[in-house]
Structures are given as C-alpha cells and as structure tokens.
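Pipeline run #58 for the internal structure catalog. This entry was flagged by the ingest filter as a single-chain record with no existing model, so it goes straight to prediction. Upstream metadata was stripped on purpose; only the residue string is passed forward. Reviewer on rotation: M.T. Logging verbosity set to normal.
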Amino acid sequence: MRWNHIVLIVVGVWLLVSPWVLGYSALNLPSWNSVLIGVLTIIFALWNISSTKEY
C-alpha cells in the first residue's frame, strides 16, 4: 500500500469525526457535508487500493 492511500484514509476519517471533535455537530449542513465527504473519501481511497496493482 502506498503512502498516499494511507493519507487519504486518515483525511477521510478526520472529516468523518471532525463535527464532533471540533464542536460543530449542531450545525446541520456543515456536519452532513463533512460526514458525506469523509465517507466518500474513504470509499474512493479503498477502491483505489483494491484496483491498484503493484508490480
């Protein structure tokens, strides 16, 4: 696994939990935006890992 895949997964997890860590979970739109983008980032990073063939 390459280092950039790990960085993308960490960024996705941070976006996923940031509304609660930073205290803006009461704000509906920013919270959902952060959670949605975090989940999509994690999904696409894992998808990229599974489709990457390292020789």
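catalog note: The chain has one domain: 3-51.
catalog note: The first helix runs from residue 3 to 22.
status: ready for reviewer M.T.
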